[in-house]
Amino acid sequence: MKEKDEYIAKEAFTFPLICLVCMAFNIYWGCADGWPVGAIIGTSFFGIITMCYIGKYLRFGRNYLKINADGIEIKDWNKITSLKWSEIKKCEVYYRTAPVSASLFQRDLIIVAESDSKRKQHISVSLSGKYCRNKSVIEAIKRFGGIDVFDSQSSRRQNRYLAGILLAVLIGIVLFFIISIIRDV
């Protein structure tokens, strides 16, 4: 089996496809029920989001994360950032809470780079909207950049913190249900 010379994580089409399906559902609802206000608003809302994504893909293409022997290349909209391994001091992969997005948690890759002027630069790459797994990204960073580049201790600490939050929320929900059941009896 031939090993790959690079690892590429491309942007997923999941969210635009969901918007397209919702827009089609609203058009069907409007055609079937004589265009109630909900169908008009839903069609307009999802139509605008779908058109924005179509325009973005036609004009700028898909976003990606490319990891190879030279370094890491990130394309976000029209901006392409290339970092050589000599500039990268450490990388971390972890989950964080996502206050704005539709999902509860978001996966991120944080890259700490140091330029020639010894100024640190923190670059955040969202892994949630890409076709990739944390394990694959971590293995690619270790393989091409070396074991020293990936900061596994910080990543584990962040993931343990998130697991603690989830465990506390789960215990709170279970206690809430137990108390509500005891009150009813």
The number of E-state strands comes to 7
* CA radius of gyration: 22 Å
- Give the helices and strands as they follow along the chain: EHHEEEEEEHH
- State the end-to-end CA separation: 64 Å
List the strand order in the largest sheet.
1-2-3-4
Q: Uncertain segments of ≥5 residues (pLDDT<50)? A: none
How many separate helices?
A: 4
In words, what does this structure look like?
The protein is α+β, with helices and mostly antiparallel strands and 185 residues long. Helices cover 48% and strands 26% of the residues. A 4-stranded antiparallel β-sheet has the order 1-2-3-4, with helices on one face. Strands 5-6-7 form a 3-stranded antiparallel β-sheet. A hairpin with a 2-residue loop joins strand 3 (71-76) and strand 4 (79-84). It is flat and about 65 Å long. The relative contact order is 0.13. The model has no long low-confidence stretch (mean pLDDT 88).
Identify the notable features of this structure and list them briefly.
alpha+beta, three-stranded antiparallel β-sheet, 7 strands, four-stranded antiparallel β-sheet
Write the layout of secondary structure elements.
Layout: E1 6-10, H1 14-33, H2 37-60, E2 64-68, E3 71-76, E4 79-84, E5 88-97, E6 105-114, E7 120-126, H3 134-145, H4 152-184
Antiparallel strand pairs: 1-2, 2-3, 3-4, 5-6, 6-7
Helix pairs in contact: 1-2
